[in-house]
Amino acid sequence: MQRHAKTGGSSLVVEDVGKTFGHGTDEHRVIEGLSLRVDPGEFVCIVGPSGAGKTTLLRCLSGLIRPTSGTIRYGDEPLTRPHADIAVVFQDYRGSLLPWMRVRDNVAFPLEGMGVKRAERNRRAEECLHAVGLADVGDKYPWQLSGGMQQRVAIARGLAYEAPVLLMDEPFGSVDAQSRFDLEDLTLSLRADLGITVILVTHDIDEAVYLGDRVVVIGGRPTTVVDNLQVDLGTDRDQITTRADHRFTDLRTRLLTRIREAQAPAERTPARPEPKPAPDETPGGGTAKDGIPKDSPAREKTARAVR
Ligand SMILES: Nc1ncnc2c1ncn2[C@@H]1O[C@H](COP(=O)(O)OP(=O)(O)O)[C@@H](O)[C@H]1O
Ligand SMILES: [Mg+2]
């Protein structure tokens, strides 16, 4: 598959975002004061417990819904609606593939609404099916495929947009363990081949550490960022050796601790002091290592939440 013309795209910057559903006595503040920055080419996993607002955050990042407060920018532009640079793979393939359409047409279908001509739609669909290891199933219907294969079709459809940013919402939650490992490795190799930015939300801490260059932990009531960890496991990951690496298990322990602390604020133990970044890593007026602009008011809030 050819490299995407717009490899990496622009940065996605979330500043002090809040999202509330309902009104009056039905009001439910799901997210508050959440700040986060993802740079072109990064693979960032957002991990948090079920119901924390992961899907809500991803829908905000896709431009499908608007935050109640705060801003989301893609590059220099405020993100207020879906953007051609940002594709989404939704949580459950069973609800997103159309059973009466052949696999090839399922992949090509969304491109029709973007004005892509039929020949180009079919070319992209075949190319993307090939990229996910399904070169020979274009003529089948989704229900003729296993769950893991159907989820590959959903990923192929996300890739067909040729968008430099791919958002994935618990994309492997509905498949068996072996297919899940295969799909994780497929996602890593697609990211390496295409140079795209990937933001993947999951409740699975091990999956987040295995896939991410960085893991952002969200939690609390309402939900905000409670930790932001660089994953220094290199780019060459392996389901057996990487998961057995002590650095992997150390990261998993720290993430689990953070999530538990966020779930039970009254029982929080004092957090370890954050290591101070070296001066050359955070040039004046720029962005600190955790991805939040140094001069942002959201930095203060996030720091408070971590403590
Ligand atoms: N459209 C909506 N209207 C009302 N409440 C919603 C809506 N979408 C999500 N919620 C609520 O927001 C909370 C977070 O949901 P969600 O983002 O799906 O969490 P997660 O993906 O982390 O499991 C849940 O309590 C859910 O009921
Ligand atoms: Mg969800």
What can you tell me about this protein's structure?
InterPro entries: AAA+_ATPase, ABC_transporter-like_ATP-bd, ABC_transporter-like_CS, ABC_transporter_ATP-bind, P-loop_NTPase. This is ABC transporter. Residues 260-307 are annotated as: Disordered. Residues 269-279, 291-307 have a biased composition (Basic and acidic residues). The protein is α/β, with parallel strands linked by helices. The protein has two domains: 37-58 and 167-306, Rossmann fold, CATH 3.40.50; 86-162, no CATH class. The chain is 35% helix and 20% strand. The chain has ten helices and ten strands. The chain has helices at residues 54-61, 93-96, 103-112, 118-131, 147-160, 177-194, 205-211, 241-244, 246-263, 297-306, and strands at 12-21, 28-38, 43-47, 69-74, 77-78, 86-89, 165-169, 197-202, 214-219, 224-230. Helix 4 packs across helix 5 and helix 7 packs across helix 9 (246-263). The longest helix has 18 residues, at 177-194. The relative contact order is 0.17. Residues 2-6, 280-294 and 296-307 have low confidence and may be disordered.
